[in-house]
Structures are given as C-alpha cells and as structure tokens.
Amino acid sequence: MTRRRKRLTRRTLELYYLYDTDHNGQGYHPIYRFTTDDFVGYEDDGMALDFGLMSDPDPALGTGSVMRDREGLYHLFYTGHNDTGNGGMGKECVMHATSADRVNWEKHPEDTFFSPEGYSRDDFRDPEVFWMEADQRYWLLIAAREDALGGVVAKYTSPDLKDWSFEGPIYAPQAQYMLECPDLFCMGDTWYLTYSWDCVTYYAIGESMNGPFAAPEDNILDGQGQMEGNGFVFYAAKTAQWNGNTYLCGWLGRAGLSADSGIYQWAGNVLNHQLVQRADKTLGVTAPETFGDYFARDLAFQAGNVEGTVEIEGDDIALSAVDGGIALADMGMRAPTMLLECDVTLDADGCAGFAFGGSEADEAWTALCLDAERGLIHYEGYELTELNDYDPMAITRFDFPDGAVHHVKLVCENEIVVIYVDDEKALSSRIGHSTNGAHIGVFAEGCDAAFTDITMKVPE
User: Is the pTM of this model over 0.85?
Assistant: First the structure.
C-alpha cells in the first residue's frame, strides 16, 4: 500500500493510497482515500480512481499526487503501469485525471507521457506535482532511471499542467536502482527531498529548491530491515503540511512468514510521524502532537520484580544485571492502545529496553532494545535469553552516549508498537507478543539501566 495526501482545510487531511490485496487480477492497485482531522481517527472514503483495461496504459496504478490548481480544479497525477510495454513505449508512464469535488474523477489519456530519451522506459513512476511560487510554474518530480546515473529524481515544469518541459535530474546520488515516491518540501530556509528504496525511506538536504541536495551521514528516520526485499519497516513516505507542522506519512509492512520476526512484506498499515528540524538542519521524528490530547487518561501501574536486581520507587525503576544476565521488572498487562513515556539511562556498552510477555498463554519475554553497544534500536522477536545469539533483523541506528538521559515515547495499538527516542529516531514494529494478555516491562541485559518518570496513558 502506498498513499498520497493533501491538505484541504486546517482541520482535514486526505490520504490517498494504493489498495493492495492478495487477490490481484489483471488489473490492480486502484487509488483509495482516508480522511483524518487528528491522525488518530480515520474515515474510509472508498475508491477515488479505478484502474483501466489491459488495452490502456493503466491496468495497474502506481503512486501519484493530488493537488488543487490556482483556479480550484483538483488534479490527480499518477503512474500508469502495463506489463505489455504499451507497444514499445515502456511499461510505465505519467497519467492525469481531474475532478471538481475529489469524488468524481475524469481521466485525460491525451495528457499521458512516457520517459525521455536516455531513461528507462520501464522505470518511470510516482509523479509528485505542486505549484512552485518562487518559479511561478508547476513542478513535477518523478522517480526515473537514467542510463548512466542510475536512479534519479527527475524534474519537469509546466505553466498549465498540460504541457511539460523536461529539466533533467534534480538529484542523482548514484546509489540506488530507483528513488521511489520523491517529495520536496521546505522547513524554515532549508529544503528537503525524501525518497524510498531498499525497503527504506531516505532524505537529502538542500540550500535551495533546486539543490544541490546531499544526504546527511544518517538519512534514515525510522527502521530498516536486514533481509533484502522483506524489510518494509517504514516505506514510501511523503509529507503533509498540517496545522503548522510537517508530517511524514508512510507505511509499515505486513508481518513476514513467522510472527515477530522483524521481517515485513509489501503493503501494510499507514504510519504518520511528525518531523522535527534540528539545530544542524538534519531531521528528527516524534509522535504527532495530537496524541497528547488522545492519550488523556492516566493508567495506574505497579511494577514488580521478575528477575535479577531491581529497585522500584514510585514511577522509577532501576535495574542491574551482571554480564550475560537479565534484570526484568513487570509493569502489568499492556493496554491494547496506550502511550508510555519515560526517561532512560544505560551503560555505554549495555542493552536495555521494553519487554513483552509473561502472559498466561506464553510466559516468555521478548525485547524491544535500546542497544548502546551496537548503536542500534532493534526488535526481532527473540526471547530475552537469546539477545546475544542472533543478529538484529529490524533496526535503526542511534548513538547512546555514556550517562546520557534519553526521552522515550512508546506508542502501542494492537500489535503495532512504535518507539520514539529523543524526538530524533523511531522504530516501527509489529509485536504480536505484546498482545492477547501480554504484560509490558522494562529490562536490562548485562548492564545497569534506569527508567524514570514513567507514565502510561490510554484514550479517554
């Protein structure tokens, strides 16, 4: 599932996405729509645009974008995909539809165009169209593959959304096969370009709308999988400007062949992170600020010692585990939908975090890890006793300086668990082991760690 969103009013946001099923026929990926006014509740508005016939360029639809022109007409630019190759013109193309009400859309096949000379005819997708005020023209960014440069973000411009002029690549890192789902936005005086490949959403930074763009040393804001082709932790993200903030809207892939494996397959659930611009112009992510109103009721908890050396004082828990050992405190049954916040400190070479398990059905505990020794946040479904036996599967890099205090938010809804650390990084996971009566706890593995000012909140 990939989606596209557009701000309509101060209170309403529409998210357009490709509807994917396990039962695709000759035609597939119609464009559907959700509506939200708080990133908490979503209205299913159904199908916006259907795919075409096998004789058309779009028996399968690909990602695109929705915008309103300066006269008030709505435009949907999207990818047409036909594996027959469209009579030699290529498998993929840019297509156009318009609507006065965003409900009834009219396709304009006469506006269809294919890749330019020197570019792959089969890899030309994900148009992102917007009005660029400084340029007094419409821009179209597209994921393309240039014969010598590899994957690029290509730029077109137009005065009228009909006649497009090819301007060449706006970003060509010569690093990935494709740069899917490109998006361009500005925060303050800095421009950012997001794109996706390798099952990962990346970003690059530029001083102007034309770049040049360069990727920071760590340009991944959520997780990445360690198994090629099956690690869709947070993919195909695009941005939304909403109520004065910028949000990164992507999706968490479906669970893999085994539960809690950290291996996520194509298509899944929408996830929305709020972007944070840091002092050095790099980006961080945090939970949407609307979660503060949604998680409004305090959930009382009482921690108890399960294993190892644990000191509990009110809402503070200190743990100490010898090398190779575990210290674990149980904080009771995990609510199906909840927000946990706390401050965490741990040794520079230690591993600590949140544990899920201890239910009547399954007494084993698995761990969502803050791993200072490896410089990672990770989850892969291993039991606490197996943490050193296997390599992590779903990870994001993070630096844990010795003695530093890290603020953590843990957002849970059913099996989806998202951890935010210091408004800098997130790791999105599917943790089936945290549901069906499972308890939530904190642990330390072979180190000292402290979890302080712990709060748990649930919806009112």
Answer: yes
